[in-house]
Amino acid sequence: MFRKTRVEREKSKIEKRVETLPTSELVGWSETTLYSISRNLSSWQSSKDSFYLEEAKIGAEALLAVVNALHERGASERRF
């Protein structure tokens, strides 16, 4: 009845960078990013400086890009 058209959006810098990295580096990068997010949230709790929240947000966006890339790679490997 109604077809949803998929709108392709332009990829961010982090998404472009993630595409070029091998899977083994992405896993390590995700672990480092998780630590960074946690550290920034802890720093925000003690100082209430919004800078730390912004850094945590950037880290979370990077982590999401990494997880999405790993998910896509895993899905493509399962098809074969």
Order of H and E elements: HHH
The helical percent reads over 70%
Q: Give the overall pLDDT as a whole number.
A: 87
Beta-strand percentage range: under 5%
Structure annotation, total helices:
3
What's the β-strand tally?
0
What is the CA-CA span between the terminal residues?
32 Å
Shape, per Cα inertia axes: globular
Write a structural description.
This protein has helices at residues 13-20, 23-47, 50-79. It is an all-alpha fold and 80 residues long. The longest helix is centred in the C-terminal third of the chain and has 30 residues, at 50-79. The chain is globular and about 50 Å long. The two termini are 32 Å apart. The model has no long low-confidence stretch (mean pLDDT 87).
Outline the fold blueprint.
Elements: H1 13-20, H2 23-47, H3 50-79
Helix pairs in contact: 1-3, 2-3
Defining traits:
globular; 80 residues; mainly alpha
In short:
The protein is mainly α and 80 residues long. The protein has helices spanning 13-20, 23-47, 50-79.
